[in-house]
UniProtKB/TrEMBL annotation:
Pfam families: AAA_3 (PF07726), AAA_lid_2 (PF17863). Residues 44-180 form the ATPase AAA-3 domain. Residues 246-304 form the ChlI/MoxR AAA lid domain. InterPro entries: ATPase_AAA-3 (IPR011703), CbbQ/NirQ/NorQ/GpvN (IPR050764), ChlI/MoxR_AAA_lid (IPR041628), P-loop_NTPase (IPR027417). This is MoxR family ATPase.
Length: 329
């Protein structure tokens, strides 16, 4: 009985968090769910879109919605504006000389936080982008011979401009692989945009007075609950088949790795919890295969990018459907 109460409480907390974010971010329910999926899966999210679609506000709203013992403004939130002249030490920190102690001491950089907004990450050089690899993969930072652990709750929301824009450096495959989900924020529909124009002052006021609906401890609890979500063996087999098919498809030159498959399963569990369930369904697969795997693949051409992965997914969903039909006969 205690476990059921905990799960019900966890699901209610997720709804509170989604509703709180939607007071500021209008018309982006699906994108909000994907961001929370990455958070509960203990991963990170990459958002690609043109300026002015709400990516930065999304990160701020999420951070301010989570209460912290150390601040009345939510958990420790840092925003880094990536530029071509940015250096790795601007992210990690550096040793400075302390006149009182007569020795060099390490001053921590902005990566030592709970929620990090890496804004326009693809405007920085690959050397700076690579400074994020260790902290995103292992939740730690190594400076010289010393390793510094990061906070238990460390979540990166990175934004990037479309690669066709001037002054951008494409993210290397190793960096892209650290992002559990890549999504396009997109513009809202016409009716929602009209509502935003009519109430932009109210939305701005909501952002300035955002309610803290969950504590950091509750977020960590939700992450643990997400890891316990049930996944049927056939869905695990389907995830394996999709990963293997990306390696054999003639229009995909670089397929998904084993780590990609594990990431997909983690995200499926987290997404099920975000949707109010303690088990994964075929619909979860249909929603997540693209956001989780697409940015990890290299295609032969632009046309293949739009067709290859959906065709693989359709084939596997059809197989699952036949299995269900046979089970009911």
């Amino acid at each position: 009985m205690e476990q059921i109460i905990q799960i019900d409480e966890a699901l209610a907390n997720i709804d509170k968090l989604v509703n709180n974010i939607e007071r500021v971010i209008r018309g982006k329910h699906r994108q909000i769910q994907f961001v929370l999926t990455a958070l509960l899966a203990k991963g990170h999210v990459l958002m690609e879109d043109n300026p002015g679609t709400g990516k930065t506000v999304m990160a701020k709203t999420l951070a301010q919605s989570i209460a912290s013992r150390h601040s009345e403004h939510g958990v420790n939130f840092k925003r880094i504006q990536f530029t071509p002249d940015l250096l790795p030490m601007d992210l990690l920190g550096s040793h400075i000389y302390d006149e009182d102690q007569k020795e060099f001491i390490f001053k921590k950089g902005p990566l030592f936080c709970n929620v990090l907004l890496a804004d326009e990450i693809n405007r920085a050089s690959p050397k700076v982008q690579s400074a994020l690899l260790e902290c995103m993969a292992e939740n730690q930072i190594t400076i010289g011979e010393t390793t510094f652990p990061l906070e238990k709750l460390f979540f990166t929301i990175a934004t990037q401009n479309p690669v066709e824009m001037e002054g951008t450096y494409p993210l290397p495959a190793a960096q892209l692989d650290r992002f559990y989900i890549k999504l396009t924020f997109g513009y809202v529909d016409e009716d929602t945009e009209l509502d935003i124009y009519k109430d932009y002052l109210g939305i701005q006021n909501n952002l300035q007075h955002i309610e803290q609906v969950l504590s950091m401890e509750e977020i960590l609890f939700l992450q643990e609950e997400a890891s316990k979500v049930y996944v049927h063996d056939e869905i695990i087999a389907t995830a394996r088949n999709i990963v293997w098919d990306t390696r054999r498809h003639p229009d995909i030159t670089l397929g998904a790795s084993t780590r990609s498959g594990i990431t997909l399963l983690k995200c499926l569990k987290a997404y099920a919890l975000v949707k109010g369930r303690t088990f994964v369904t075929e619909d979860d697969l249909q929603q997540l295969v693209g956001p989780v795997l697409d940015h990890r693949l290299i295609y032969r051409n632009r046309d293949a990018k739009h067709k290859a992965l959906p065709s693989i997914l359709d084939k596997e969903l059809s197989r699952l459907s036949k299995l269900k039909l046979q089970a009911t006969v």
